[in-house]
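Cast an eye over my tokenised protein here and flag anything odd:

===
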Amino acid sequence: MTLRSFLVGLAGNFIAAGIFAHLSGPKAGLISLCIGFLLLIVAYAIGKKPQAPASLPPRQENKQSIEFNPHFNPQFNPQQNVYIGDVSDSRTTAIEQEQLRNEELIIAFMKRVHPGGYYDRDEIASGVDLNKRDTSNALERLRSKGRVHRTTADQAPDGYLWVLDEKEQ
């Protein structure tokens, strides 16, 4: 909000107050009306913009020359590797081998301890010396292969009991 707009608003209020006050008494209304017009004159005087000086220096144009070099040849040689055929990532192969090893450890443990019995995840994890997450992942992979089955149990830490498939026993 600028000073000019504030003064115009204030002047309008005084003019309106002067008109309404004139109805109750002539002196209060006249004073308010005069203050309002005085503020309008001040706002008009403040609102005038100063004139720009007549003698401005001439505008200078920037002349930049753009040169075109037709012999410009940037070198950009990205390296692109294309693999054709069966290329195994050694890291992926190592992870898959470890997962298969964990699965076989679990099957061997379940066959050795009691082949027809039910196991919870923590019992299997401590028996084969794996962490709970790796044990759960291996059990789920074995279940998808049909080598073990699970049943729900409230007492089990993860909510499931695991048993070997009849073919594996």
